[in-house]
Amino acid sequence: MPSFNLVTEKWIPCVTDQGTAEEFSLSEVLTNAHRIKELSDDSPLVTVALHRLLLAILHRNFGPASFDDWKTLWGKGAWDETKLKAYFEQWQQRFELFDSERPFYQVPRMQAAKKVAATKKQAATVTIEDIELHPIALLAHEAATGNNGTLFDHHFKEAGQTASTAQAARYLIARQVFSIGGGVSEPFNLSHAPLVGGYTVQVIGDNLFQTLALNLLPYTEETPVPHAQENGQSKDLPVWEQITPQAPDKNGSNPLGYLDYLTWQSRRLHLIGNEQVVTNCQHQQNLKLKNADLLDPFQCYAKSKDKGFSAKRLNEAKALWRDSHSLFEESTTTSETKRPEVFNHLARIEQARRGQEIQASPAYRFAVAGMVNDQASVSSWSREILPLPLSYLIEKQLTSALNQAIQLTEAVETPLKEAIKKLSVELVGKVDAPKFSDSFQAKEFYWSSLNAPFKQLLAELAVDESFDEDEEVTRYGETELPKWAKFVVCQADKALQHAINSLRGTARELKAASFAEAEFNKQMAAVKKNFPNLFPKGEKQ
Length: 541
Known about the structure:
The chain is of the alpha+beta class. It has two domains: 12-103 and 171-387, no CATH class; 396-530, Topoisomerase I, Chain A, domain 4 (Orthogonal Bundle). Helix content is 37%, strand content 18%. The chain is built from 16 helices and 19 strands. The chain has helices spanning 26-31, 44-62, 67-76, 81-91, 155-158, 165-178, 208-214, 258-262, 324-328, 341-354, 396-428, 433-440, 442-448, 451-461, 480-501, 507-530; strands at residues 12-16, 21-24, 36-39, 111-116, 125-130, 134-135, 163-164, 200-204, 229-230, 233-234, 267-273, 277-285, 301-304, 308-311, 337-338, 363-374, 377-389, 465-468, 473-476. The strands form seven sheets. Strands 6, 7, 11 and 12 form a four-stranded antiparallel β-sheet that branches. It has a three-stranded antiparallel β-sheet with strand order 2-1-3. Strands 8-16-17 form a three-stranded antiparallel β-sheet. A hairpin with a 3-residue loop joins strand 13 (301-304) and strand 14. The chain is globular. The model is unreliable at 144-159 (pLDDT under 50).
């Protein structure tokens, strides 16, 4: 029987603190986390799933049961190697990818009875056969197979539909977290895995130890996920420690606690391969989440009228930074959105830093990853990294200033849109104007020009502070917000001029352009009246 043990085999792609790419085993990646810069897989979905696996192991070994315990762990700067090695020695067999009884994150090879109908010469018989075998590409969201059509790339087809065993292990873990519902399966039809519904945030530290620690929330019997109890004892365990993992129930199942949730088995999977390569897999529905009120601590939620809070989704047509205010703003009982719980944890870290209880940075970064899906297919995925000055999480005046910057940026789109509409109507008439307007791609030009500058604004706005002695409050953005206002107006004007310059320059087109510019200036004047503090009177814009 082939063997590939995740504790000892090298399969987790990383970037070291020296900047080199290297694969580590499960044991190595945690004991050397302070010497590793980051996990680095081509797929952002795999990266998210690997972090969740590592967090489950760390929670199981280190808690922390309280924020004070967390501060102690943070202060050590590395994970306890002796404790981790003892844990992996105890449970090493459960991390075996090809174990005959408990293959990691899988079930044993699945077979089913198949009835062969009777003939004149032979009575009916029943044989036991493997259920359907799929190419290993089924587990990779970027593979061009099935409902995904020609999505992303074709490297699996070029490689003959195989994957290295290390690669297959990574896809296996990601599939349990990101499987799409909607297809026919046994014992019941496919349902979404935990993270399909929305995007996921992950705080990024200066090294992998910091990244994991910053995302390691206090772990109690009530939070982040309530524990199931038996005889007054918590039943929460990662799936590999469970004596008998939960069986699939078409009515849904509840996690036994946070460890069970982090290692949730949404699919019954089985890999077929050897130490070097995996060629096929078996795939069926497994656990279906039942608790609709369960909030993932790494997702942002918005309230809807009929469904309570739902995870916020990625929008291919809208950069995530345009929603950053709701990500940062502290949630209240009346809030229409809930920021990720991990950001509440970071707010406590910032308060502890300011109180000189710990040594930490006032600013980190965070990644937002997820996929855009429609029913049973994936259309795209993305991973975006943004600056995260921790002041945003505790300073209401700062989040208010950020919100004003975003509101202005959205408002400035209107003069551009109306100017392009005016240009199009003058050139092709009202009926054909909408399609003609789209051909200029002026809005796309405008928004794409703001992506990198906004990240710079996020960082600079947090340090642009002044104290109002009369009202005894710290204010933000007296310098940076007017600069941003001038910049976005300039970018909108550039987008309009880019559209005008794409014309041939006939007399009729020049006349239409003058009408468009007049419309732009009229609409922009109205915008400026709504933001008087950002456009001081008498100052040339």
